[in-house]
Design goal:
The chain is an alpha+beta fold and about 110 residues long. The chain is globular and about 35 Å long. A three-stranded antiparallel beta sheet has the order 1-3-2. A hairpin with a 6-residue loop joins strand 2 and strand 3. The protein has one domain: Arc Repressor Mutant, subunit A, CATH 1.10.10.
Length: about 110
């Protein structure tokens, strides 16, 4: 059973993925970029607390949701995921230029 803090963290990761990411097979994103986005999100999340192993737990949450990382030592690439393009951003790494995007969150929630 998860502790209260684990549940809060898991809820925050779920919200981050739904609000800040796009899931689909054509996408990928560098671990460093994804974690930087999550860390900024986490610092403003209502669930926030001082997590002793933020990067490690974030990676565990992604794997538990069925996401896979391409081996790359300390800096893997997450497959099937990228950052959601925001109106105030230019092109985002991994964002396809075709109109065939997916908002499927299978295994995310």
């Amino acid at each position: 059973m998860r502790t209260g803090e684990d549940e809060r963290f898991s809820r925050a990761v779920t919200r981050f993925l739904k609000q800040q990411c796009v899931v689909g097979s054509p996408y990928s994103i560098a671990d460093e970029r994804l974690f930087a986005l999550f860390k900024a999100f986490w610092n403003n999340a209502p669930e926030r607390y001082d997590h002793p192993a933020l990067l490690g737990q974030f990676r565990v949450e992604l794997v538990e949701r069925g996401l896979q990382a391409e081996p790359g030592g300390k800096s893997p690439r997450w497959l099937g995921l990228t950052a959601r393009k925001r109106v105030d951003q230019g092109e985002v790494e991994g964002w396809p230029t075709s109109a065939t995007t997916t908002n499927s969150y299978t295994n995310i929630a």
